[in-house]
Specification:
With 120 residues, the protein is of the alpha/beta class. Helices cover 45% and strands 22% of the residues. It has a five-stranded parallel sheet with strand order 2-1-3-4-5, sandwiched between helices. Strand 1, helix 1 and strand 2 form a beta-alpha-beta unit. It is globular and about 35 Å long.
């Protein structure tokens, strides 16, 4: 049985990219959410094994949404995705308890490694 991934990103293109990168793997995109609010609302319905979470989104940003998910769900595993990669942001990502961080543009190897790390 494939591991379920919830993609949270305000760009539908990221969902399509992740679907393509996961083809032929043990992972599948089970849900796509356009923002943090939707991810929080749908988490119980989807019950993902892991969430990929864009950091910069309108409304509740990815950092805040990840904090809420991890507070409400002990089992939540979050891989943060960003186009920015400064030290302050990295400290904040790991400070909230995210299991991994990826930088855009994504590669198949980096994505699979981050998902494995988050679930390991």
């Amino acid at each position: 049985m494939k591991k379920k991934v919830m993609v949270v990103d305000d760009s539908r293109m990221m969902e399509h990219q992740i679907i393509r990168l996961l083809e032929g793997t043990d992972y599948e995109v089970a849900a796509y959410c356009e923002n943090g609010e939707e991810a929080i609302a749908r988490y119980d319905e989807v019950k993902p094994d892991v969430v990929t979470m864009d950091i910069i989104m309108p409304g509740i940003d990815g950092l805040e949404a990840a904090q809420v998910l991890m507070y409400e769900h002990d089992e939540a595993r979050i891989v943060m995705i960003s186009s920015l990669g400064d030290n302050d942001m990295l400290q904040e990502v790991y400070g909230i308890g995210a299991q991994a961080v990826l930088f855009k543009p994504l590669t198949r190897e980096a994505l699979l490694g981050a998902l494995k790390k988050a679930l390991g």
